[in-house]
């Protein structure tokens, strides 16, 4: 495959690591990156090391007012010598998008339709290329599906839910399901230890709180940093999530693997330790063609970080999507559709 140029929308806890991981993937050249306040574009390739060191401890994150780590004169990406301050960061990247093969969207999801609306802006500007997101919520997939025809007409290949879960683990479930002719149940159970990484990932932690039964995304968006800290303290820094609205369910259903209602997602987040509180595991239970019932299990090593498990797969799916886009395949794809079919 020829070289792929790509942009990252949102250089918070995830997006900064996207840039870093891309240095280790063949043929990927980051040419644009933005956060809320700044944009960096260089069609010959961004200097990722400079950009990361300029933004170290200085992320324009959505983790709440005082969690926005903005030091010095310039905020976030704008602190890089390659960047400029802007009030219209996404539009600035869209203006350059004729020369960008793929866009990885690592923006927050405090409004369910935010990412679909960002996609609309690319469509309106006549973009034809790849869009990839790492969103979590099941309901957003439907909003993207509604845009399938528009994406097809525009020449856009959109891969949705391409982070860790959904994303990596959805793909693992799709592979594990191949032993079976009938899948009864998919159980996804994740563990994240986020002590030293907590500052960088406040945005994700805030969004996760919206998955607790007592809260929703409006609460998570409006809560003060102190209120978020109180929730974490109430759980002694270790929060267990059950029956999460994670799009693994609808993504496995749209790939024909099982019904969405047969998929459960839960996990444990520990902000007091870098050790994972539990091993991330995918269990797929089904029946083989010759009548045997079994459970295939996929586990992540406890030493692999959340950032590694989001960004490696997200960039891997991005490369698969570019291949499809160049072959003229457009529309909306979930991670399971980029793997062996059921
Ligand atoms: N699928 C998964 O496995 C998985 C795992 C972790 C995180 N995520 C998702 O990744 C997303 C990013 O998480 P994070 O921890 O990096 O969040 P974050 O708050 O640290 O970063 C968000 C970034 O987006 C930028 N941003 C926000 N609004 C913007 C706008 N209007 N224009 C331009 N830039 C804007 C912010 O400045 C920041 O750089 C979240 O939605 C989270 O749910 C998914």
From TrEMBL:
Stretches of the chain forming a coiled coil according to its record: none
Listed Gene3D superfamilies: NAD(P)-binding Rossmann-like Domain
Pathway the protein takes part in: Cofactor biosynthesis; biotin biosynthesis
Residues annotated to bind NAD(+): 10-14, 203-204
Keywords, comma-separated and alphabetical: Aminotransferase, Biotin biosynthesis, NAD, NADP, Nucleotide-binding, Transferase
Entry's EC annotation: 2.6.1.121
Gene Ontology MF term list: NAD binding; NADP binding; transaminase activity
KW Nucleotide-binding (keyword) present: yes
Residues annotated as the enzyme's active site: 136, 207, 211
Enzyme class at the top of the EC tree: transferase
Allysine, modified sites: 136
Reaction catalyzed: (8S)-8-amino-7-oxononanoate + L-lysyl-[protein] + NADPH + H(+) = N(6)-[(2S,3R)-2-amino-8-carboxyoctan-3-yl]-L-lysyl-[protein] + NADP(+) + H2O; (8S)-8-amino-7-oxononanoate + L-lysyl-[protein] + NADH + H(+) = N(6)-[(2S,3R)-2-amino-8-carboxyoctan-3-yl]-L-lysyl-[protein] + NAD(+) + H2O; N(6)-[(2S,3R)-2-amino-8-carboxyoctan-3-yl]-L-lysyl-[protein] + CO2 + NADP(+) + H2O = (7R,8S)-8-amino-7-(carboxyamino)nonanoate + (S)-2-amino-6-oxohexanoyl-[protein] + NADPH + 3 H(+); (8S)-8-amino-7-oxononanoate + L-lysyl-[protein] + CO2 = (7R,8S)-8-amino-7-(carboxyamino)nonanoate + (S)-2-amino-6-oxohexanoyl-[protein] + 2 H(+)
GO annotation, biological process: biotin biosynthetic process
HAMAP family: BioU (MF_00852)
Subunit details: Monomer.
Function of the protein: A 'suicide' enzyme that participates in biotin synthesis. Catalyzes the formation of (S)-8-amino-7-oxononanoate (DAN-carbamic acid) from (7R,8S)-8-amino-7-(carboxyamino)nonanoate (DAN), a function equivalent to the cannonical BioA reaction and the first half-reaction of BioD. The cellular requirement for biotin is thought be low enough that this single turnover enzyme supplies a sufficient amount of the cofactor.
Additional record remark: In cannonical biotin synthesis a pimeloyl-conjugate is transformed into biotin by the subsequent action of BioF, BioA, BioD and BioB. This enzyme replaces BioA and performs the first half-reaction of BioD.
Family (UniProt): Belongs to the BioU family.
Protein name: (S)-8-amino-7-oxononanoate synthase BioU
Organism whose genome encodes this protein: Haloferax elongans ATCC BAA-1513
């Amino acid at each position: 495959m020829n070289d792929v140029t790509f942009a990252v929308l949102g250089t918070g806890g995830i997006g900064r690591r996207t840039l870093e991981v891309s240095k280790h993937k063949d043929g990927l050249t980051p040419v644009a990156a933005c956060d809320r306040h700044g944009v960096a574009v260089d069609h010959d390739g961004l200097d990722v090391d400079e950009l990361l060191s300029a933004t170290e401890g200085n992320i324009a994150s959505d983790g709440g007012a005082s969690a926005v780590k903005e030091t010095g004169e310039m905020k976030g990406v704008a602190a890089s010598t390659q960047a400029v301050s802007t009030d219209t960061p996404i539009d600035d990247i869209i203006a350059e998008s004729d020369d960008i093969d793929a866009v990885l969207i690592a923006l927050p999801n405090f409004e369910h339709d935010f990412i679909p609306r960002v996609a609309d802006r690319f469509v309106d500007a006549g973009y034809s290329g790849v869009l990839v997101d790492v969103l979590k919520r099941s309901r957003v997939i439907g909003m993207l599906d509604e845009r399938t025809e528009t994406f097809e007409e525009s020449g856009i290949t959109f891969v949705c839910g391409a982070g860790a879960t959904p994303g990596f683990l959805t793909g693992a479930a799709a592979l594990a399901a191949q032993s079976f002719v009938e899948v009864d149940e998919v159980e996804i159970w994740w563990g994240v230890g986020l002590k030293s990484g907590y500052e960088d990932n406040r945005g994700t932690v805030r969004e996760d709180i919206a998955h607790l039964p007592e809260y929703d995304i409006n609460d998570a968006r409006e809560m003060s940093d102190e209120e978020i800290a109180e929730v974490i303290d109430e759980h002694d820094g270790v929060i267990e999530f059950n029956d999460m609205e994670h799009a693994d369910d609808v993504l496995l259903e749209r790939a024909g693997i099982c019904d969405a209602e047969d998929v459960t997602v839960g996990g444990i987040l520990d902000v007091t330790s870098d050790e994972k509180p539990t091993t991330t595991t995918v269990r797929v239970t089904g029946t083989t063609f010759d009548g045997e019932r079994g459970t295939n299990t996929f586990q992540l090593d406890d030493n692999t970080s959340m950032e590694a498990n989001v960004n490696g797969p997200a960039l891997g799916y991005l490369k698969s999507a570019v291949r499809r886009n160049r072959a003229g395949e457009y529309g909306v794809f979930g991670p399971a559709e980029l793997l062996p079919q059921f």
